[in-house]
């Protein structure tokens, strides 16, 4: 993650207010509709640790359905406690920052977090409505959700998280806890850091952030059926995995990540932080890599000994194909490629439009099909993507068109990053992505949590099964 090049400005407030009608099930609303959580140090601390507001038991805090939460300070779910956010809750984060340094507001989870949105009433983590603009997509207006090493469980279901990516500075809680480094890092939308944690992120939207969508530094995770859009201004990915993780990533749409949809790495592997293991299948990745200079970016990047099976994914108008640096160094926990990985049976589709940004002094790649055909040193022909469908000529673009229900593959600019809700990435009957994919029978290619699942808040979630087609969606 790269340093954000400006500081947020504004005036820091110190109140967390709840604006909702008072009901019997609403334990946090006062008669005037507001509540200020208890602060440490008689309110002089920069951090709003929930001091009992909204608790229904000694260990559970509930934010009731349809509540509006104005978050004007750092908020912490304390270790040993759980925050349950019900459907329809809107968490509106102040962009003024905290204190004299205007530290971006951070939502820290030292305990457990359960976001229980629904399709009809998703939960929203955002900024004030008048600041939700195209100009602010990469402005990094707040700090995102940071699940620390003591967070045992987190559920993000039917939840929208947007306009994150503030700079980690002196005074940032994540800097004090040494999750991130002040002056070097910017906040992803979601961070995890407990190698034993259980995390389920599903049916959600993670968009408009300076940094990564999800940055996993530890934990067992299911990342399924989400939409990622406009993740990363200068570097960063939709999903970024490090050592200490076992993850299934499936059924997601990833639109215009700055670098890759999937960066899968075992960086940080040690005696206490195990090899990263990832099953990444049936995802659709669009427009990856075009906003990134250099010869990185374009869909999938697997490095530093990660054990990654990447298959049945559909890459559309991406800059490059799957890359595996240090392929010639087998099974080196510091740098090499894990030769038990399978990166194959993927589908690379290309439109015919030219990028409006061409780095002529680097690869010079201007078209997606041209990038797929580029003689990249990290492609490793004949092993990686040996059986994949790869569009390498302009003439093949029409033949390999996925035939989406509603996405103009030849019209959307390669550097565009504003996601349109009207798009539909299901495919029409007869689409070529419906045949030729991996059938999913091999035991080593099964989802890690497809059978036993992950238990979060007493409920067991399972990963999607492998579908014998390319991409997140089949026909309607």
From TrEMBL:
Keyword Signal: yes
Keywords per UniProt: Signal
Superkingdom, taxonomy of origin: Bacteria
Chain intervals for the UniProt region annotation (Disordered): 27-57
Biased composition annotated in UniProt, kind: Low complexity: 30-42
Signal peptide: 1-20
InterPro entries, A to Z: Pectin_lyase_fold/virulence (IPR011050)
Official protein name in the record: Right-handed parallel beta-helix repeat-containing protein
């Amino acid at each position: 993650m790269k340093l954000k090049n400006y500081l947020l400005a504004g005036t820091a407030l110190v109140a967390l207010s709840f604006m909702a009608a008072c009901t019997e099930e609403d334990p946090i609303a006062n008669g005037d509709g507001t509540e200020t959580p208890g602060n440490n140090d008689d309110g002089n601390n920069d951090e709003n640790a929930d001091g009992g507001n909204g608790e229904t038991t000694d260990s559970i805090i509930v934010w009731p359905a349809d509540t509006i939460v104005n978050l004007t300070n750092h908020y912490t779910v304390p270790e040993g406690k759980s925050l349950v956010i019900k459907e329809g809750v809107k968490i509106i984060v102040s962009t003024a920052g905290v204190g004299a340094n205007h530290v971006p507001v951070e939502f820290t989870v030292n305990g457990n977090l359960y976001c229980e949105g629904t399709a009809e009433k998703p939960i929203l983590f955002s900024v004030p409505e008048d600041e939700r603009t195209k100009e602010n997509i990469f402005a990094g207006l707040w700090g995102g959700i940071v699940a620390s090493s003591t967070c045992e469980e987190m559920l993000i279901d039917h939840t929208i998280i947007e306009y994150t990516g503030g700079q980690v500075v002196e005074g940032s809680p994540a800097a004090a806890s040494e999750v991130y480094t002040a002056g070097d890092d910017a906040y992803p939308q979601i961070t995890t850091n407990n190698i034993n944690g259980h995390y389920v992120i599903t049916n959600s939207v993670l968009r408009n952030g300076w940094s990564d969508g999800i940055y996993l530094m530890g934990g067992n995770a299911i990342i399924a059926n989400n939409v990622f859009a406009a993740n990363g201004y200068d570097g960063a990915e939709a999903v970024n995995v490090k050592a200490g993780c076992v993850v299934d990533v499936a059924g997601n749409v990833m639109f215009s990540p700055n670098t890759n949809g999937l960066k899968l790495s075992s960086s940080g592997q040690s005696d206490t932080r195990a090899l990263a293991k990832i099953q990444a299948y049936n995802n659709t990745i669009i427009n990856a890599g075009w906003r990134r200079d250099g010869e990185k970016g374009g869909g999938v990047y697997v490095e530093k000994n990660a054990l990654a099976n990447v298959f049945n994914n559909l890459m559309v108008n991406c800059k490059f194909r799957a890359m595996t640096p240090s392929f010639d160094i087998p099974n080196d926990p510091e740098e090499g490629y894990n030769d038990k990985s399978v990166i194959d049976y993927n589908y690379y589709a290309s439109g015919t439009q030219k990028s409006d940004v061409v780095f002529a002094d680097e690869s010079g790649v201007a078209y997606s099909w041209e990038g797929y055909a580029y003689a990249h040193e990290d492609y490793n022909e004949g092993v990686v993507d040996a059986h994949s469908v790869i569009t390498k000529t302009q003439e093949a673009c029409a033949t390999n068109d996925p035939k989406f229900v509603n996405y103009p593959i030849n019209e959307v600019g390669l550097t565009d990053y504003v996601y349109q809700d009207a798009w539909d990435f299901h495919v029409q009957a007869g689409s070529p992505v419906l045949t030729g994919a991996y059938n999913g029978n091999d035991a080593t290619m099964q989802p890690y949590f497809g059978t036993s699942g992950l238990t979060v808040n007493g409920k067991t979630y399972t990963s999607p099964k492998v579908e014998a087609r390319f991409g997140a969606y089949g026909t309607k």
